[in-house]
## 1
Amino acid sequence: MKLIKAIVRPNKVDEVKDALGKLSISGMTVTEVRGHGKQKGHTAVYRGKEYNVSLLPKMAVETVVSDGIVEEVIRAIIQAARTGEIGDGRVFVIPVEEAYRIRTGEKDPI
Amino acid sequence: MPPSAFAQLDAARQELSAQAAGGTAGRIALEHFSDRVDGLVRQLFESAPHPSSDVAIFALGGYGRRHLCLHSDIDVLVLFGGPIGLAGEQFLRTLLHPLWDVGLDVSHQVREREDLAQLDASNPTFLLALADARPLVGSPALFEEVAAFLDATEPRAFVVASLEQLIDERHAAFNDTPYQLEPDVKDAPGGLRDLTALRSLARATDAALLTRLPADRATLDEAEDFLLRIRSILHLEARRNQNVLSHEMQEKVAERLGYPGTSARQQVERVMSDYFRHARSVSRALKFTRRMAPTPVGRNLVRTRDGIRFVDAAAARSQPESWLPLFQAAIDRGVPVTDGALGLIHAEVNRYDAGEFYPAPADRAAVLAFLTPRPGLYARLSEMHDCGLLGRMFPEFAAISCRVVRDFYHKYTVDEHTLLTIRNLERLGAPSRPGRERFAAQLADLRAPELLVLSLLLHDVGKWRDEEHAVESVRMARQVLERLQLPAADRELVEFLISNHLRMSVAAFRRDIDDPEVVRQFAELVGVEERLKMLCLMTLVDVEAVSLDILTPWREELLWRLYVDTYNQLTLGYGDELIDNAQGGLATLLAQAPPHLSESDIRQFVEGLPRRYLRLFTPDAVYRHVQLARDIQPDHVHAVLEQKGAAWEVTVVTLDKPFLVSNICGVLSSFGMDILRGQAMTNPNGLVLDHFEFADEERFLELNPDGRASVLRALEAVVSGELDVAARLRAREQSLVHRRSGIPHFAPVIHCDNHSSRRYTILEIIEKNQVGLLHRISRVISHQGCNVDLVLIGTEGEKGILVFHITAGGAKLTDAGQAALTAELTRALEGNDEIDQGHRATE
């Protein structure tokens, strides 16, 4: 079982959700985040004054999937979120040791 | 004076003296005596040579109230409809001399109609006397003017305030007690002046107070008659205007009033006992009136402890146009409308149709002014909605009353969501969280924020149907705009905002705002900064009103970034997008052109100007510009100066030359004009169009009939080189009168940018707005050998925001050129006069 954490452009969230939906993945967490990667933001000018836009608004999409479909999920996310420009985001794959359902206390099978 | 008049007055005095001696010269006797003096004045008026203008005589003070005692002053106002002149003086002599000759103490006030135009706060006593003015004889028109003047809110409020102060001062002189052993029946607490004061207070605030006094009307009438009878005896005995009921006089009064008793002392005790009983009634009635008297805040409107209410409910019921001022007064004073007033409107509102709430142009202007975003607007609009007024004034809004639209994010009914957008906007006036100041600055910068509120009020009215609501909202909004008879440009703006109210949230939250094409398309949609700011604010408050947690700081940041990128596209990049043959707007412009303008006239003028030009100006304005540009020759200045609302606009067409912008701005500044906004544009043929909106703070154009011609003449003289504006402007800049104080100085922002435009170096300057700022900056630019093709001028509070599109030798400035320009501008803006002088010497 893996936690897939994708940092994507805000306008790409719906497409990523649709792509995951096609893989029958319906459970996910979407969070508004700010950050920067290698591009480290940029300088903007408003009314003659320069200011640094270092932390860019992004969306984090997190979902836990079984090991067997990890690659398929990663491909789907990349395909949906990619524009080819700097700032398209990242996908992280993190191993999950155990998972429990809070309502019943049951342990999910790995 | 004819002998018969003498005899009549003498007979009247004899009669009053006899009544006073018998202790019966109370109210009725004094009124009768006043009437006979009236007759005398009228007789003199008729026989006097009439002046050239209208004239009217008013009885003031006690005479106005018909309470003339034997030796009372005869207070009169002689009001002239125009300048008094020699004939007027002759008239006054003929009127007043005979009155003095027969021994009447005439105190006269002479005024011209113009004197009533402004309240004379330095003379409260006169205004109080005027409050009792009684028309005697003369021009009915002047009678009506005085009545209208006294009925206006400001004089009434002033009467109340002055009266309160004078009562306090007068009572203090008597140690604030009516229980004086030798009372002044006129001035002491509980005396005749107190009776007059309580009636004046009630009349100026709420006449119904007189029916709720602790003493009934008969008791007060009896007190008044008693005090007047005593006063008449005092005048008779003292043979002068004597009002103190001294120990000696008390005995005479008791005797003349026929008080029983075996001794004078017993008689006096009885009369004084009655005096104190009456004085106590008067005193209590005055205290009650002072405590309960509301403050006049408008026509038929007063402020009470519970809020704003109508004075005369019956009148209010039949005057629906007076209902909005009720809510306006509540906002102005930061208090609610009383439940009683809301109940009245609720009961009556369905009798009236929309147009009846704003039938006249002034009423319609008041509707718009009411919608200015400020604290209290949401609360008052909610009250108006709850009592049914909002829905009757705007039946379109009634269509969404309690309307439920089920979706995953809206948390409130459509009407409440709408009102919350307005609350969110009003709260921007005092930003509550970090990051909001930038949006607050946008709001402060709007030219017509009330149109944004109107747009918000109507943006979702189309949701009464389930289909595409923005289209339906626009259709319904048109009906409102039609009823309000808004100017075409305002209607277009409101329709634009409603029609596109979802577009910015879509672009900011669902598109990639890092994509320049997204920004370009959005800039194309909004066209000009004003619309961009309004749409940005509309989006902000609209999203925020959906639910408590939907507008996160993260989303605000996205919205702000789209705003900044679009703003930069509009202000920095517009010089690259020029009007050409393929421009859609040009074809329409040519098709609708008036017959006196040829196609080539229009093409020659507009082709090559930035496309922005067609977004900024209506076709009619463009045709006027084309007309101005006809047959223009070097050194010619074709200009039009017009008043637009509180501001003025000047449009100048001329041929480009060095220092042109600087000179034009210098001329305006030299007349004390404060440039608020403006554009300067140059077409490829070297034709320059300058359009400036400015405030005439010194009222030069208003006070000088030939002011416009003077400004236009100076423009021509300066542009042609006949006149050097610098010297005149320098004196003004150095004048103490024009130095602004109290504004914290901040370092000027000077920013050069060679990236935003393909053709130009963009120079942005933010500096404290001050007389001659634009002139000084553009002078430096020209001095540096730069050519100014485009200029944008804006103000935000005390800041001037200037954007110049410049070239040097037909190309963008080099790094060295930018550095030199920036350095010289810095010196000029920091006010280094020596350097500035040096520049002049080199020109």
Note: Residues 670 and 729 of chain B are 5 Å apart (CA to CA).
## 2
Amino acid sequence: MQNNESVNLTAVTSTAEKKSAKKLEKEKIGFIISTVTVIAFLILWELASRNSWIPPLFISSPTAIAKAAFLMVQDPQFWHHMKISGYEFGVGFLLAVAIGVPMGVFSGWNYYFYSLVNPFISGLYVTPKVSLLPVILIAFGIGTASKIAIVFLMAFFPIVMSAQKAMKTLDQNLIKAARVFTATQLQIFKTVALPSTVPFLLNGIRLGIGQGLIGVVVGEMYAATAGIGFQLTSYGQNLQTDRMFVGVIVITVTGILLTGILGWIEKRFSSWIPEHD
Amino acid sequence: MVATSRNVKLSSRNLDVVYRNLKTNTEVVALHNINLDIIEGEFICIVGPSGCGKTTFLNTVAGLIKPSRGQILLDNQEITGPGADRSMVFQTPSLFPWRTVIKNVLYGLEIQKRLTDETKKMAYQYIEMVGLKGFENYYPHELSGGMQQRVNLARALTVNPSLLLLDEPFSALDAQTREFMQAELLRIWSETQKTSIFITHQIDEAVFLADRVFVFGARPGRVVEVIDVDIPRPRNLNIKRNPKFLELVDRIWSIIEQESTKQGFANKKLKEN
């Protein structure tokens, strides 16, 4: 019996290996497809611009954007705007995490705290936060503080909601197991509830990054004296489409980098999440 | 047969468990007047139709449910809540997905603040005993269902309980794995000699494992009959073809059948009224 089972065990491992080899092959093909499509798109864009299929003023062209980017990164003014936007986003986003995570976790865990905060959370969740911009400007002024506030508001809700949801969908079987092993409420909270929230939280933070980036750009476009969004608007007003596109690309790349870092964290800290493909 | 000179380990006295539905203001009697004694070192199986309260009984012994009337004594002490002297193997593996096999097995010790070099060594021994040596650093999702149930068992044994509760631990496994696990459980049990209560709805499983089989009836849940399994140990899977084994299975079947016929009549009557 002992032997039979150990034969089974090796069989399990080797099929797992085979599966991952097949998956690797699939990923390689997928990568090639994506690369080819992107290059084809860039070529088409360039052609459309050069041959004036679409007025170059509207769409600029990849080469013009590259040239503009090359010039802009040498300009200290560009980095000044980057720094300001980065600061606004960073502070607002960190505040959203620092307040959103504990508030979500505790309101999901304690029903009375939930009753206290939830009317505000679910009410504001559906409110378009940018509609509060005029009031935020009155309260915080035209400088960085108002941008921090809007980034915070945008990023806070996906984070708080995901933490809350994680706590409300805890696996009752695990709680039962913890109780049988004589765990106290505090021990259940630490050993079952908190770890259970990790995948939900990371997902909420990912959404928060996207929302926060929207917040900083829209905030700066609405009323500001500096920042990527501000720069974007002024290039647009001066019909400098190529430079405007550089701004857009900078925001996109930031988003990709941040979610990439998050994905890396996700892999490191939760190797226990089974991969879905 | 169990030597009667040994101590009574667990004693249920006039136990009632009543569930109240606050919304409809109705009561369901899950267990009615359960009286039974379990002797130290015994392996007990409880079988019965679904709804007979066998899982409720186990949860009450575990201290998760409070009796509505009567009491359960463990080593002459009334059970008032979960305790380090009991542990449970759950129907679903209920492993912590973020913990590796060894971290799962150490969970109980960690919670009970009994984590020492010595108890850790025991954990590794139990992992070896359940046949998972070499898998200590695997995560649950990397294991098959049968292997997960082995971890579930090792986790329960590692806290070194004096009473082991098993809630249909093999019901989700395929037929072949289940048979292997039954034999494995008997081997492990003979090495540890722990008093065990095993819930199942599979009669042959109960007869194969148990010293005594308690047959429960439904509505209300109660003990209908206690069957001694006088098949000598050590037992292997071959005894399942033994005439005595088949006779016992048959006997329990007919008790349960009778019970459900009675139940059928009762239901009919209920409808007519």
Note: The CA atoms of residues 6 and 40 of chain B lie 6 Å apart.
